């Protein structure tokens, strides 16, 4: 046990000063239980007090940490802790009184707040809407292409179109995006073309990933969108490193990591959040809480009130938003971005939404969830329809324009698929390139042997890969 | 990324390219019992494990509804949510939890959804499970832990749904590594792993989940660990492999026979601790050795077999040991047919070794 000492004690002051004067005595609590590690700046700068913007958050904290009006305090590494004689456990969950969900547009397309959101310009709003429609059309057509066996795999953003598109709209193009896999809307917003999408899905020679990864693992340096990796959560601490670099380079930009509810159970999520808070990294964590991780529901995933409350545990400013309300997403990400960049701090956003489609083309979700639940989210809580209602209420949406957009995209997509399908695969040399910066001798040798084998047994090898 | 084996014409063509033999003339022999595929055999083993030991548990990501490869179908209904359950999405948690459960005298049967996703649990396996008994002077052990994970190429899995990570675990004293080649083997070996007094990593060839069908007795039976099996006798060269690769090797043996080369094919079954004696006896007879696996050749388990056999059989060898394995690259999507140790690569190596 560590014999804790009180700061009100004059002796301690003396002790601390002594320690300060004799740095050799400075040691960690574990090394010497009596001496408290101290660096001299003991007036509170070590205690990173969470700064809450919202008064609701402050109120909630006050409830959790009631203490006596006892002026005695424990001087603990990291900051003073008040004593209390009341034995009181912090509740295991706030689930009875859930953190509310920030919303701007209601189900009938009306604005619910007079000023607590960011106004969208008409052209921005229309682009957001069109990009969501593009995303939907892409999903329909690529999904169908997979069913026809033209591509090996696909995964839709159905029901979650607003999150990726509206968040991308609120970010700057310089902000570095690290997606999970259900956020191609960010790329759509940033101008990645339908042809570029199709090239990746078909793994042809124009795919930036050189046909090496499964479909949907997009990546584009030009669009500040790091290449997707299947292992879940790995992008989260990476985003913190990227953010730290942006900060050191004094860039007016942040990193943005997207991930699902299931992924918050991975160690990397916790590692990333903690690092970000400790380092003061300008990174936005956007969790798409869509209720499911393949067949595992959020009830089986965590017992906390979702994901938003976890931010506070790590000392991160956090907000829960309606992930099917494009304007709420836009406003919250806008605000989060300005805080992250200006104040050099991470922000966590939990967007509540629903995975309307199957997990992927390899999944049949009717095995584990109710059809009416899906229908409800697909129809009544559809994010694209809701945004359309608001646009219509503004008089910004023309049915004719929308129809024209849909048909153009559809045509372009079919053309893109045809082109991508016709385009040959990357040449065989690309099997060996990029393992390292330069080809080492073992790979040179393996390439030579393989080329001889392909000559002897051409029937063993796909004809669309140039040798 | 789930049930990767389902309905893709691309996949079918790639399997044809690998010339997989699911017929009974191959290494899938007749044992009596019901005809079933590999995932059903795994499922049956899990049913038996839960039925015969009330202190056994099955858990992992999405196992509740039957698992993404259907291996755990029907287990929750039969044995209840306390013994069969979904875990949060956290591999390090799954294995760490399994170690604790096993340390209390239970049979902890953990599923990692894909072998490619076992790495977050690497620390728990390598530093914890493997050393639990040794570091405590045998006061504690987690021998009841079995980690199941589907591994290997399927035709379109790319980097992260194709890997064969067995060599990493073979390098860790304290862990057993077992890989079955067929439904019958899968059932018998899995039951042995579950009941073994050591932590085991059990890699399941996911290519074969649906494809491989053979007769499997419905009763409770076990196949011995650390015993290789000679599945085809021959006199000119010994071939050693495991898992799905054996069917490719078998095809090469059949083709070599047409050229008058008699191949002996050995299924190692348990990679660690492995049955050196069976391989040694065979190589002493044939004078030649070829090893084949999907994992990259450098540092693969084939290197270990090669070194050990050269140590034991140096003067009996008539040719250098040959390895036909995956390339030293990440597992590539469109280049998969080039990456793979194909039948013809093996056939060439057999001929070269015999002619040496
Ligand atoms: C480390 C790791 N473990 C398991 C998987 C398999 N897997 C792919 S997606 C997925 C569910 C992810 O759920 P969530 O994070 O909620 O994202 P969503 O699919 O709902 O968008 C799982 C388990 C993986 N890709 N990586
Ligand atoms: Mg989810």
Automatic annotation (TrEMBL), chain A:
Tell me the GO molecular function terms. Answer: branched-chain 2-oxo acid dehydrogenase activity; metal ion binding
Q: Which Pfam families match?
A: E1_dh (PF00676)
What EC number(s) does its UniProt record assign? 1.2.4.4
Q: Which UniProt keywords apply?
A: Metal-binding, Mitochondrion, Oxidoreductase, Potassium, Transit peptide
Chief subcellular location: mitochondrion
How the protein assembles, per its UniProt entry?
Heterotetramer of alpha and beta chains.
Single Gene Ontology BP annotation: branched-chain amino acid catabolic process
Sorted alphabetically, the Gene Ontology cellular component annotations on this record are: mitochondrial matrix
Every copy of the Dehydrogenase E1 component domain together lies at: 130-427
Identification of the protein by name: 3-methyl-2-oxobutanoate dehydrogenase (2-methylpropanoyl-transferring)
Top-level taxon: Eukaryota
Q: Give cofactor(s), names only.
A: thiamine diphosphate
Localisation:
Mitochondrion matrix
Under catalytic activity, the entry for this protein gives: N(6)-[(R)-lipoyl]-L-lysyl-[protein] + 3-methyl-2-oxobutanoate + H(+) = N(6)-[(R)-S(8)-2-methylpropanoyldihydrolipoyl]-L-lysyl-[protein] + CO2
The entry sums up its family as follows:
Belongs to the BCKDHA family.
TrEMBL record, chain B:
SMART domains in alphabetical order:
Transket_pyr
For this UniProt record, the keywords arranged alphabetically read as follows:
Mitochondrion, Oxidoreductase, Transit peptide
Gene Ontology BP annotations: branched-chain amino acid catabolic process; response to nutrient
* InterPro entries, sorted: THDP-binding, Transketo_C/PFOR_II, Transketolase-like_Pyr-bd, Transketolase_C
Q: Does the keyword Oxidoreductase apply?
A: yes
Any one Pfam family match given in the protein's UniProt record, by short name: Transket_pyr
- The record lists the membrane-crossing segments as none
Q: Where in the cell is it found?
A: Mitochondrion matrix
Q: What is its main location?
A: mitochondrion
Q: Which residues form the Transketolase-like pyrimidine-binding domain?
A: 36-211
Any single GO CC term annotated in Swiss-Prot or TrEMBL for this entry: mitochondrial matrix
**Molecular function as annotated in GO:** branched-chain 2-oxo acid dehydrogenase activity
- SUPFAM superfamilies in alphabetical order: Thiamin diphosphate-binding fold (THDP-binding), TK C-terminal domain-like
Q: What class of enzyme is it?
A: oxidoreductase
The Swiss-Prot or TrEMBL record lists the needed cofactor(s) as: thiamine diphosphate
Q: Which reaction does it catalyse?
A: N(6)-[(R)-lipoyl]-L-lysyl-[protein] + 3-methyl-2-oxobutanoate + H(+) = N(6)-[(R)-S(8)-2-methylpropanoyldihydrolipoyl]-L-lysyl-[protein] + CO2
- The EC number of this protein is 1.2.4.4
User: Sorted alphabetically, which PANTHER family does this protein's record hold?
Assistant: 2-OXOISOVALERATE DEHYDROGENASE SUBUNIT BETA, MITOCHONDRIAL (PTHR42980:SF1), 2-OXOISOVALERATE DEHYDROGENASE SUBUNIT BETA-RELATED (PTHR42980)
Subunit structure comment from the entry: Heterotetramer of alpha and beta chains.
Q: What is this protein called?
A: 3-methyl-2-oxobutanoate dehydrogenase (2-methylpropanoyl-transferring)
What is the protein's species of origin? Cucurbita maxima
Organism lineage string: Eukaryota, Viridiplantae, Streptophyta, Embryophyta, Tracheophyta
């Amino acid at each position: 046990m560590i014999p804790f000492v009180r700061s009100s004690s004059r002796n301690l002051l003396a002790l601390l000063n002594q320690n300060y004067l004799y740095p050799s005595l400075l040691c960690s609590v574990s090394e010497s239980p009596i001496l408290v590690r101290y660096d001299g700046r003991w007036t509170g700068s070590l205690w990173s007090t969470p700064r809450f913007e919202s008064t609701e958050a402050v109120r909630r904290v006050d409830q959790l940490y009631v203490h006596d009006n006892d002026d005695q305090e424990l001087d603990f590494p990291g900051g003073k802790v008040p004593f209390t004689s009341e034995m009181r456990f912090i509740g295991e969950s706030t689930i009875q009184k859930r953190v509310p969900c920030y919303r701007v547009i209601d189900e009938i397309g009306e604005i619910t707040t007079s000023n607590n959101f960011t106004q969208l310009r008409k052209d921005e709003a229309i682009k957001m809407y069109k990009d969501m429609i593009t995303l939907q059309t892409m999903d329909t057509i690529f999904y169908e292409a997979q069913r026809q066996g033209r591509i090996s795999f696909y995964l839709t953003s159905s029901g979650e179109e607003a999150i990726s598109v509206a968040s991308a709209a609120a970010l700057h193009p310089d902000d570095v995006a690290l997606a999970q896999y259900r956020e191609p809307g960010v790329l759509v917003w940033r101008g990645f073309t339908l042809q570029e999408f199709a090239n990746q899905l078909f793994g042809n020679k124009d795919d930036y990933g050189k046909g090496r990864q499964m479909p949907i693992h997009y990546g584009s340096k030009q669009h500040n969108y790091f290449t997707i990796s299947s292992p879940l959560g790995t992008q989260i601490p990476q985003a913190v490193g990227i953010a730290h670099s942006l900060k050191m380079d004094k860039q007016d930009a942040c990193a943005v990591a997207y991930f699902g509810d299931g992924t918050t159970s991975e160690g990397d999520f916790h590692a990333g959040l903690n690092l970000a808070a400790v380092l003061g990294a300008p990174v936005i964590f956007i969790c798409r809480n869509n209720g499911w991780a393949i067949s595992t529901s959020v009830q089986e995933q965590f017992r906390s009130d979702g994901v938003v409350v976890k931010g506070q545990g790590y000392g991160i400013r956090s907000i829960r938003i309606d992930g099917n309300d494009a304007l709420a997403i836009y406003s919250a990400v806008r605000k989060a971005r300005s805080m992250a960049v200006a104040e050099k701090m991470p922000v966590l956003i939990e967007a509540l939404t629903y995975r309307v489609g199957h997990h992927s083309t390899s999944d049949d979700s009717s095995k584990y969830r109710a059809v009416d639940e899906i229908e409800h989210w697909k129809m009544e809580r559809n994010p694209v329809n809701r945004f359309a209602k608001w646009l219509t209420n503004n008089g910004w949406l023309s049915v004719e324009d929308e129809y024209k957009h849909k048909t153009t995209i559809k045509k372009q997509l079919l053309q893109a698929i045809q082109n991508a399908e016709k385009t040959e695969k990357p040449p065989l040399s690309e099997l060996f390139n990029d393992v390292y910066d330069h080809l080492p001798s073992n790979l040179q040798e393996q390439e030579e042997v393989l080329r001889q084998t392909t000559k002897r047994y051409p029937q063993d090898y796909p004809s669309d890969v140039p040798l | 990324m789930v049930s990767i084996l389902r309905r893709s014409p691309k996949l079918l063509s790639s399997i044809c390219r690998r010339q997989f033999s699911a017929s009974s003339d191959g290494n899938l022999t007749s044992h009596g019992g019901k005809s079933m595929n590999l995932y059903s055999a795994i499922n049956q083993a899990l049913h038996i494990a839960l039925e015969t030991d009330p202190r056994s548990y099955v858990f992992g990501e999405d196992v509740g509804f039957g698992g993404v490869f259907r291996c755990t179908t029907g287990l929750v209904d039969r044995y209840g949510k306390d013994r069969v359950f979904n875990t949060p999405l956290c591999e390090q948690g799954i294995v760490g939890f399994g170690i604790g459960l096993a340390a209390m005298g239970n049979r902890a049967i953990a599923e990692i959804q894909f072998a490619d996703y076992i790495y977050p649990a690497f620390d728990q396996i390598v530093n914890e499970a493997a050393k639990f008994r040794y570091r405590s002077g045998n006061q504690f052990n987690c021998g009841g832990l079995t980690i199941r994970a589907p591994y290997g190429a399927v035709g379109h899995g790319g980097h992260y749904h194709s890997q064969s990570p067995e060599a990493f675990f073979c390098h860790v004293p304290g862990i057993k590594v077992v890989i079955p080649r067929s439904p019958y083997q899968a059932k018998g070996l899995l039951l042995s792993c579950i009941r073994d007094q050591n932590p085991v990593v059990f890699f399941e060839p996911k290519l074969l989940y649906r494809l491989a069908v053979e007769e499997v007795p419905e009763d409770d039976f076990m196949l011995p660990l650390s015993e290789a099996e000679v599945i085809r006798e021959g006199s000119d060269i010994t071939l050693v492999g495991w898992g799905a690769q054996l069917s490719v090797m078998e095809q090469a043996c059949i083709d070599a026979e047409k050229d008058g080369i008699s191949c002996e094919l050995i299924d190692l079954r348990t990679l660690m601790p492995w049955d050196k004696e069976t391989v040694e006896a065979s190589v002493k007879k044939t004078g030649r050795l070829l090893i084949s696996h999907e994992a990259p050749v450098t540092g693969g388990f084939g290197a270990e077999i090669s070194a050990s056999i050269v140590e034991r059989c140096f003067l009996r060898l008539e040719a250098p040991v040959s390895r036909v394995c995956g390339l030293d690259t990440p597992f590539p999507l469109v280049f998969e047919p080039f990456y793979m140790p194909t039948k013809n690569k093996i056939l060439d190596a057999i001929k070269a070794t015999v002619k040496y």
